[in-house]
Amino acid sequence: MGALRHLAGRVWIHPHDPDPARVQGCVAVIADDAGSVLVDAGNSPAVAQRVREAVVTAGLPLPRRLIYTHHHWDHVWGACAWPDVEIIGHRAGARILRAEAGRPWSEAYVRELAAGNERMIPSCTARIAAMSGLWDGFTVVAPHVEFDDVLTLPGGVEVRHVGGGHAEDSTVVVVPDSGVVLLGDCFYPPPLHLRQPDDGLDLALIHRLLADFPPSRFSWYADSHDEPKPSALLESILRAP
C-alpha cells in the first residue's frame, strides 16, 4: 500500500486497504505540472504522509489542491497533514465539517461516541486504530473553496456534485483527458449507523453516472473501497440479480 499505481493518463491511485475493518479508501493523484490534485485525504495524517512519500517516489509534482468526494471521516482526516494545499468540497459537506472541526477529537471522545451508539462501534474502533499516536495537533479541516453543482479546475478536472444515499455532498471527480471518473463512495448504501434494512447500492445513480460519463469516453470508474472498474464491470452491477 506504499506505492502509487498508475491507472490511466495522468491519474494515479494510492490503493485502498482491502481489510474493510481498517476503513481506508484509495487516494487518487491527478498529475499536473502546475501542482497535482489529490482526490480525498485518507483516514489519518499517517496515510497522508504515505501518499506524500509515494508522490515524491513516483516523481510527480506535489499537490496544490485536494478535493473531498464527501465529508466522511475516512476521506478527510488526513487533510491536516497538507497545510499548504487548497481544499475543495461541496457546500453541504463544508457545513458539516465546520461543525466537526469544533469537536474535541481525541481517543476518549471517540470512545464516548461509540458508547452512545452501538452501531458506530466499528467506525469508532477504526478511527482509534488509524489515529494511534496522532491525536496531538489533529484537526478536521473544512474546505477552503466551496461549490454547489459543478466546478472546473485549471487543467480541465471537473468536480461534480451527484448526491445519493451515502452522503448528501457526494461528489465525483472527472478527468476527461485520461478517461477516468473518480466516484468516491457515491453509489454505496448509507454508513452502517444510518443504514436501514432495505438500503443497498444506488442503482439509479449508477445508471445516471454511466449516462453522464459514457463508456465510449471513459474507460475507468474508480470507487474508494474497491478496485477500479472498467466500464463493463460497472455495468455488470446493474445486471446482477
Summarize the structure.
The chain has 241 residues and is an alpha/beta fold. The chain contains seven helices and 13 strands. The strands form two sheets. The chain has a seven-stranded mixed beta sheet with strand order 1-2-3-4-5-6-7.
Molecular structure report:
With 241 residues, this protein is an alpha/beta fold. The protein has a single domain (5-239), classed as Metallo-beta-lactamase, Chain A. 28% of the residues lie in helices and 22% in strands. The protein has helices spanning 45-58, 73-76, 91-101, 107-116, 121-130, 203-212, 231-239; strands at 5-8, 11-14, 27-30, 36-39, 63-67, 86-90, 145-147, 150-152, 158-161, 171-175, 180-184, 220-223, 229-230. It has a seven-stranded mixed beta sheet. Strands 8-9-10-11-12-13 form a six-stranded mixed beta sheet. α2 links the parallel β5 and β6 (86-90). α6 (203-212) runs antiparallel to α7 (231-239). The model has no long low-confidence stretch (mean pLDDT 96). This is Metallo-beta-lactamase domain-containing protein. Residues 25-225 form the Metallo-beta-lactamase domain. It comes from Actinoplanes auranticolor. Pfam families: Lactamase_B.
What structural class is derived from the secondary structure elements?
Answer: alpha/beta
Distance between the termini: 33 Å
Low-confidence stretches: none
The value of Rg in angstroms is 17 Å
**Total domains:** 1
Shape: globular
State the CATH architecture: 4-Layer Sandwich
User: DSSP strand (E) fraction?
Assistant: 15-25%
Count of DSSP helices?
7
Helicity, in percent? 25-40%
- Kindly provide the name of the CATH class: Alpha Beta
**Average pLDDT figure:** 96
Strand count, sense and barrel status of the largest sheet are: 7 strands, mixed
Question: Largest sheet, order of strands side by side?
Answer: 1-2-3-4-5-6-7
CATH superfamily: Ribonuclease Z/Hydroxyacylglutathione hydrolase-like
| Element-level helix/strand string | EEEEHEHEHHHEEEEEHEEH
CATH topology: Metallo-beta-lactamase, Chain A
* Assembly context of the chains: single chain
InterPro entries: Metallo-B-lactamas, NDM-1-like, RibonucZ/Hydroxyglut_hydro
Protein name: Metallo-beta-lactamase domain-containing protein
Organism: Actinoplanes auranticolor
Pfam families: Lactamase_B
